[in-house]
Specification:
248 residues; globular
Length: 248
């Protein structure tokens, strides 16, 4: 009986998402015609994207709870989050409330035609396996972010965790914080790996919690690694708290 419920839920959600994506096509086409500067400076465009985020979350038909330790700063920030599912994007995207933001994405995602088309418009793609191309892309992101004042969003783990366990963080967000003089705001997502894990067809109705953390400033720390450890410890504490809560 449980498997039938999951199957019905999956097909219903996929049916709803299919029809939601249709009106998004002209928006993506218009955005593709804009220069990167105009695209990531357009509040109007990102208000439309924010509406899309909202509708997609409703179509997932799962209970989602947001806990705000602090709000996203009005000034541009670097947003980092743990990565459990492709659905992370809409859960994080909605916190910007229409403010322009630039996604950083791994080059492996370019293997899919649809994602390759969309990522080329709304994200900067990074090959984390090639130090030279990574550096070139980060410099491009820094220039674009400086010109547009858009937030930067990335997953420092680099790839999705199928178990919810934290993976080692790459240091790219530290370089961005240093060059742009921006705060780093962590977002912890709990349980999304049980809703729609990597490689799964099924979408389960499981409660999800999203915690938006405080802003961390690199200038408050003597060393980069101390800054990195503080942020990783923040995420680790959230994982521990979530595990304790589940065990009760």
């Amino acid at each position: 009986m449980k498997s039938i419920v999951v199957l019905l839920h999956t097909f219903l959600v996929r049916f709803l998402l299919f029809f939601i994506c249709i009106p998004l096509i002209p928006v993506v086409l218009v955005a593709s015609c804009l220069s990167p500067f105009n695209r990531f400076s357009s509040t109007f465009l990102f208000k439309i994207i924010d509406f899309f985020y909202t509708v997609v979350l409703r179509c997932l038909l799962i209970p989602i709870t947001y806990k705000w330790i602090s709000k996203i700063p009005n000034e541009p920030a670097i947003i980092i989050a743990n990565h459990q599912s492709s659905l992370d994007i809409v859960l994080i995207g909605i916190v910007f409330k229409g403010s322009p933001h630039i996604w950083l994405a791994r080059s492996e995602l370019m293997d899919t035609f649809l994602l390759r088309w969309i990522l080329a418009i709304f994200a900067q793609v990074i090959d984390v396996h090639n130090a030279r191309t990574t550096a070139v892309t980060l410099r491009k992101v820094i220039t674009l972010a400086s010109q547009t004042n858009a937030h930067i969003v990335l997953f420092p783990e680099g790839s999705r965790s199928s178990t919810g366990k934290l993976q080692p963080f790459f240091d790219g967000y530290i370089l961005l914080a240093k060059k742009l003089k921006r705060p780093v705001v962590p977002i912890y997502i709990h349980n999304l790996c049980n809703v729609y894990p990597r490689g799964s067809f099924f979408i389960k109705r499981v409660p999800v919690d999203v915690t938006v953390g405080p802003a961390f400033f690199l200038s408050d720390y003597n060393e980069d690694q101390q800054f990195k450890k503080t942020i990783q410890d923040w995420f680790a504490a959230k994982v521990t708290n979530a595990s304790t809560k589940n065990a009760e």
